[in-house]
DNA sequence: CTGAAAGCGCTAACAA
DNA sequence: TTGTTAGCGCTTTCAG
């Protein structure tokens, strides 16, 4: 006996059902439903009425197979739970609006293997393009991207060799930029707090940039504190307490993201540290929730929304009618926002 | 002349290419690639080697059409930019792991029309199930869901009649629960701060529950402050300043989400309000970033991750081997976390 | 402007 | 265990 089941087993409607309902050939129904111009208004109306009243939903599987075209853009990011990627995705969505393309999101949790899986899965739907975070991929993933035969845009990071196009910022130079600001403000004993960076290449590059930038002034990072897991205010507090307990003489703390930076800021304010006088602080990302904190945390804007928008525009072929599609290299310039937590 | 273009026009590989490369029939290649058991180890290895070395990626469009099965689950949520839906999505991803199903995310920006579009688009890919936030949909969207012939799970909200299955909490009773706690703690002049609720039905239901709960004790909401746009700390500060300036005699502020609540809390601490003595505060969602604030904001946990997980389990048919698939109703019980911002 | 025929790349069903 | 055949539902192409 058949189980009672949600969605009874009515066969989904096909073009043929609509065709029969309105006495127009399948072919013409198909034309109407794809908004093609070469159909008489009378026929068009008949078809639309029939399709609507039946509740017909086209089958893109069949359509995609027949036309060898799929209006999907695969967007692959490491995480949704911090404040950075949702912004990127909204930029993508915005740029794809009215392009006829549809973004499809996949999440890798900063795991190269998971990225490879997600990519494989997505490519098997033959999307029109891929937007993928970062320049570091497994060998297999690189091969898939290279052979996909569609535009690929690597985003967020411009420090390295892209497969096809790239839209991002240099995290290395963001790190150096922060180093300059820190040194210029007179801080000398610098601590770094952030994720364990095995697979967060952008955080690593910022760290390296910071290290290099400081080295040019003869300064070495005085202490570091690493953690794993998502970004959270509480983590920021804990890390800050740990590093300041161990190295009370630090006069600057650089955080690998704004959220833990904000946690650190709240901790320091609680404890009565003199900020930015005796202790300076900075984060990274330029997330707008910093606006509501008691002091404005210094940060570098990662241009998240704009990156998403530009990347999607490349796929959609908008704004690049210069005869070349693909192979674009767009490096955005991150702005340092000194806020209230660096001495002036 | 052809433009230089990313992804040159190599024809994507087909099963046939793999078949020819290893001298095994297309059908058997297909079996191997779908991990079917009925292939000899020797053949299997030959096929896998050939597929790998060619870099073959199966075409799910064709596969889906032939098998009338698509391993996609459509997940439709209003927003990614607040802290609630990413948690839901991670619950979904977790539950779908190893089920062979793949979540696909769509975002509606709290617009019923956009929801309808996204749904139409997703249904046209003939997914195996739909997880969609809320019980309120356009008439057309309802019709599509009812006729899709696949399991539908409406999530987040249990106040209303689901189309098929539902997993959520009662926002109305969450509002009442908060009203009880507020009254029990002795607060009497209550202010409400939140989004304009035209399309945020869950925020509306919480507001209604709060109103009803207070009414039972002869209390009316003393003042309200509405805004539009995303949740942000800064918004919380501004709203709080506005409402307390206009109604300085308020002794409790109820926020429609934790983020603006946190902004309000920081504002009140800045201004030296006696919390929770003279002024109580509460938010909603139970987002874990509250942990790092100077005081723990009272909140009600919306069970986000669990909702995503249970909803996905229904689609995957896990944990429901009682002879019925579909038509499940799971109402979770939100926990009130009084934190430090309600008097004891 | 409309229709008929062929086939997209794969898999169900059956045959060997 | 492997191969053959016949579509899946749509769109391309070409003919009217």
TrEMBL record, chains A, B:
The keyword Hydrolase does not apply. The keyword DNA-binding applies. Pfam families: LacI, Peripla_BP_1. One of its GO terms (molecular function) is transcription cis-regulatory region binding. SUPFAM superfamilies: lambda repressor-like DNA-binding domains, Periplasmic binding protein-like I. It comes from the Bacteria. Residues 13-67 form the HTH lacI-type domain. Gene3D superfamilies: 3.40.50.2300, lambda repressor-like DNA-binding domains. CDD domains: HTH_LacI, PBP1_GntR. Keywords: DNA-binding, Transcription, Transcription regulation. This is LacI family transcriptional regulator.
């Amino acid at each position: 006996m058949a189980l009672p089941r949600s969605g009874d087993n009515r066969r989904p409607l096909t073009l043929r059902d609509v065709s029969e309902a309105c006495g127009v050939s399948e072919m013409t129904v198909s034309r109407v439903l794809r908004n093609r111009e070469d159909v008489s208004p009378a026929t068009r109306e008949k078809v639309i009425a029939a399709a609507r009243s039946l509740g017909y939903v086209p089958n893109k599987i069949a359509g995609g197979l027949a036309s060898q075209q799929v209006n999907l853009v695969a967007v692959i990011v490491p995480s949704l739970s911090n404040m950075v990627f949702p912004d990127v995705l909204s930029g993508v969505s915005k740029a794809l609006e009215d392009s006829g393309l549809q973004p499809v999101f996949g999440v890798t949790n900063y795991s190269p293997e998971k990225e490879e899986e997600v990519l494989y899965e997505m490519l098997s739907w033959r999307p029109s393009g891929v937007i993928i975070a970062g320049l570091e991929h497994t060998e297999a993933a690189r091969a898939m991207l290279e052979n996909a035969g569609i535009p690929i845009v690597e985003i967020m990071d411009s420090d390295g060799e892209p497969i096809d196009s790239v839209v991002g910022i240099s995290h290395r130079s963001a790190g150096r930029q922060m180093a300059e600001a820190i040194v210029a403000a007179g801080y000398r004993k610098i601590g770094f707090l952030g994720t364990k960076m095995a697979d967060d290449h952008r955080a690593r590059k910022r760290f390296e940039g910071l290290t290099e930038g400081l080295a040019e002034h003869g300064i070495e990072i005085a202490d570091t504190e690493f953690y794993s897991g998502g970004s959270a205010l509480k983590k920021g507090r804990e890390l800050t307490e740990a590093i300041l307990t161990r190295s009370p003489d630090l006069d600057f703390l650089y955080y690998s993201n704004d959220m833990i930076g904000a946690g650190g800021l709240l901790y320091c304010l609680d404890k009565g540290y003199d900020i930015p006088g005796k202790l300076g602080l900075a984060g990274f990302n330029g997330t707008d929730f910093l606006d509501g904190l008691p002091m404005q945390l210094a940060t570098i804007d990662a241009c998240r929304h704009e990156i998403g928008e530009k990347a999607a525009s490349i796929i959609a072929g908008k704004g690049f009618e210069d005869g070349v599609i693909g192979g674009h290299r767009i490096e955005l310039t991150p702005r340092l926002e000194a806020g209230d937590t660096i001495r002036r």
